[in-house]
Prior knowledge:
Layout: E1 3-10, E2 21-27, E3 30-33, E4 43-46, E5 51-54, E6 56-61, H1 74-83, E7 86-91, H2 102-112, E8 118-121, H3 137-143, H4 158-168, E9 175-177, E10 190-191, H5 194-199, E11 203-204, H6 207-223, E12 227-229, H7 235-246, E13 251-255, H8 283-295, E14 300-301, H9 310-313, H10 330-337, H11 343-358, E15 373-383, E16 402-411
Parallel strand pairs: 1-4, 1-5, 6-7, 7-8, 9-12, 10-11, 12-13, 13-14
Antiparallel strand pairs: 1-2, 2-3, 5-15, 15-16
Helix pairs in contact: 2-3, 4-6, 6-7
Amino acid sequence: MSIFISQVLIADSASSHNGQVINIRVHQGKLDFGAARAVDGDEIIDGSGLLAMPGFADIFCRIGEPGLEQKETLKTVTAAAVAGGYTTLMMLPNTRPAIDTAAQVSFIVEKSKSLPVQVFPMGAISTGCRGEDLAEMYDMHAAGAVAFSDGLHAVQNAQVMLKALQYVKAVGATVISMPVEENLTRHALMHEGIASTRLGLPGMPAMAEHLMLQRDIALLEYTKSRLHITGISTAASVQLIKQAKEKGLQITCSVSPYHLHFTDSHLGDYDSALKVNPPLRTEADVAALRQAVIDGTIDCIASHHQPQDWDAKTCEFEYAAYGMSTLEVCFSAVKTACPILSPERLSELFTANPRKIFGLPAVSLSHQAIANMVLVAPDEKYTFTADMIKSLGKNNAFVGKELQGKIHQVLL
């Protein structure tokens, strides 16, 4: 079937049609720009009020398969990704067993060939993501690992992190770190502050993020390597990264959608869907993160999609697992938090920058290009409901919230 999209606005800085309102006909899987009219039998989409963007790319997505299929499988994450406008995912190595060998990387590469969404595995920095011994990074890169990270666990051992930064230079890859000094956060449940005191919950000091980030930046400066910081959650972290960029270091960063929306004050009813790591911070931190998204200090959006099974979240707050299922709602969450973002900036955050940073296959809305496109209604407001969640993980705190910016359709 062919599809005719009338008068849609193109948001793709790599396209010669960027900023134009134009007709697109998708025929035999390829894009035909400027077609005057639909052909008999075409499915017709009214593109007025819609943006056409290259398919989104997510750089920090947890998938349970193999070993934790009760949380998410490759098949179910595909449905969640398409619902959220994503056509490319970078998969965390926190599986069971961890993705820490070439064989594990190859398993994901082969499995993903049958999926409509591209799934690229990250290789673990350390064996078992335990932060003790360096994993087989060269072999994993040769097998198809696109980046290296211990995912949900920051590498606590500075020597291991140093070696990882040195090793990736040989293959031109990037290390991803979610900075948390775990010695300062053991047994902690939320951000350390007035709200944690009121609720009687042990807190995670913001300093735990800042100390690890400072260490990683120092190691980056020493090695002259490439580092991506994800999950930044404080105003101070924004400043540290801005200063590192001003020094000319090869550092980039990303933020999760929920850190742009929720604060520690939202935990008043002990909602386990809001139990995340790094934790939700203060209103001042949220304001700083939003401004960093707008001014370009933050390079891209990372879903931090971490689906949990029912038992892992439906329990006392103290025992609930960390994480939020987010893929379906990322675009809307960001557009709602930062409504002034231009179409070009949205395209940078969700597709151009993540692909550029990690060397993912480029996608462009150009004549005769293979269709890899998402249509979004940036100004449409709607209420996000539980039935919109396609992931196995239903732990999504945006359910019931009015959001702006709706995914209309993915053409892949």
